[in-house]
Amino acid sequence: MIADRSVFDDKYAPQRLLHRDAAVDRLATALAPTKRGQQGDDLLIEGSPGVGKTVLARHTLSQLSERHDLDYTHVECMGASTASIIREVLAAVGPKPATNTPLEDLCLSLRERVEDPLVVILDEASDIHDTKALDRLADVTGISLVVICYDAAEWLTHAPRRITHRLHGQTLTLDRYGTDELADILEPRAEKGLDHGVVARRQLEMIADEVAGIARFGIYSLLAAATLAQDRDHHTVRDEDVAGAYPLAREWMRQAALDSLSFHHHLLYALVRDAGEIDGETLHDRYDAVADRAYDGRSRTPLAERSQRRKLRKLDEYDLVERLGSTRDRRYAVIDQSVRSGYDIDLSRVLQSGLQD
DNA sequence: TATCCACCGGAATTTATGGAAG
DNA sequence: CTTCCATAAATTCCGGTGGATA
Length: 357
Description:
Elements: H1 21-30, E1 43-46, H2 53-68, E2 71-76, H3 82-92, H4 103-113, E3 118-123, H5 132-139, E4 143-149, H6 152-158, H7 161-166, E5 171-173, H8 179-193, H9 201-210, H10 215-231, H11 239-259, H12 263-275, E6 277-279, H13 280-295, H14 305-317, E7 321-324, E8 331-334, H15 348-356
Parallel strand pairs: 1-4, 1-5, 2-3, 3-4
Antiparallel strand pairs: 6-8, 7-8
Helix pairs in contact: 1-2, 3-4, 3-5, 8-9, 8-10, 9-10, 10-11, 12-13, 12-14
The protein binds a DNA duplex through residues 81, 83-84, 98-103, 279-281, 284, 303-307, 309-310, 313, 326-330.
């Protein structure tokens, strides 16, 4: 049933980028000056999560770099500091700088090293609160910025003045795909990733419609449908497999998010999940109660309350836990009970004290 | 309704880690 | 090997806030 899982991976680059011709042109036009050795125009790409912003930027830049020897680098900005962003760009144009090089020196050598035009893709730039990195990159002649975020207007209000000036009128909005368009995108994935003929075009359209044009969700759903069909010993994907695929696809996306986080997050997640819904004070207490045993034999040590709250905020950002209420009435609950930590976390002590209460 | 109080989260400060220079 | 320096992570500090109490 499933011939090649990697086809459904986030990192998989399709040979052809379907239904994004206008967007590709727009980006290519902005970067056209680089063909003459000049700095390209900046571009701000906005769109809902999963509609293909990163794929568009990577695909287009990889083509331009092949055809015109254009240099580019892709920087994941989520949670990155000013220095780490500069450091990463610097690493792309030369040897990796030492970890204790001062920020000022990094900026100086970046200016020295960038001779030819360089395109920097700032991905997940929504939460660059530390706008110094933008200023620093804008200082360097030759660097053009491709900024990827969810909401351009919102992003621009937080950006430094000179950046908003540079990006004025340079916003590219990626809309969700139409049903037929997304079905077109799913088709080659089915061809490559699944055995021949196991899924019908009509079913791809069902998926495309259900996921409301969100490509990533659609791709995961296709894999989920095939997985269910395989588990149920079906020879081809049936409509009932498609119907059951969506919750599974969502679960996988959340599970991947949780897996990417640290043990601290996992322990807090497990406590919230176990409780169903829990207020801050009780959660902190239970954390303390299990901390000694849970962290035993691990390299990390238990966190103070403030740090626990920061981890919980992260879990919220990753759509794993929801935080209800604002201050004293804050309560936490996991969003999908079927997502669970891969760590073997023993909460028996908490359960005992919970029964005693 | 006024006051109290404990949680929340921003900001400042400290600690842990690791590479480079002396 | 020791000292120095820079960053990231964690902690401490503290004002804001809104439910609780009288």
